[in-house]
Amino acid sequence: VQTCALPIYQLMLGASAALPGLLQLSASGRRAWGAFLDDDNRLPIESGVLIDLRVRRSIGRGVLFVDVLNLANERYDEFGYALADFRGNQVGFIYPGQPRVVRAGLTLDLR
Fold first, then answer.
1. What is the pTM of this model?
2. Strands 101-108 and 62-69
3. What is the C-alpha separation between 99 and 65, in angstroms, rounded?
4. Of 22, 35, 30, 48, which Cα lies nearest the Cα of 79?
5. Is 39 left (phi over 0), alpha (psi -120 to 50) or beta?
6. Distance, C-alpha 11 to centroid of its chain
7. What gap in Å lies between CA 35 and CA 7, rounded to an integer?
8. Strand partners of residue 95
9. Cα atoms in the 13 Å half-sphere on the side-chain side of 24
10. Angle made by CA atoms 93, 76, 102, in degrees to the nearest 5
11. Is there a contact between 58 and 22 (Cβ–Cβ < 8 Å)?
């Protein structure tokens, strides 16, 4: 029995590397497929390959970081649900996933 809106298959891969200059690079990719909005598996949830990157650099008691989430700006459906319209037909309502996001910050060790 397949539960609505939960993917049947998921694949995740990741790698990290220490680079010269106290830099660290991390990359991860994920893909999910086989999810549907309805119990009859007629309304699929579209997904793509999502790639995330993180670059970190240690500076004294702190760490600077820059993250890029959904690097390729892939369009995908995050989740949704199915409801009946006025004629009784199943209609899917989809919430799109986030577009590319870049965030930067500083983590401090105050001990």
1. 0.82
2. antiparallel
3. 20
4. 35
5. alpha
6. 12
7. 4
8. 79
9. 12
10. 125
11. yes
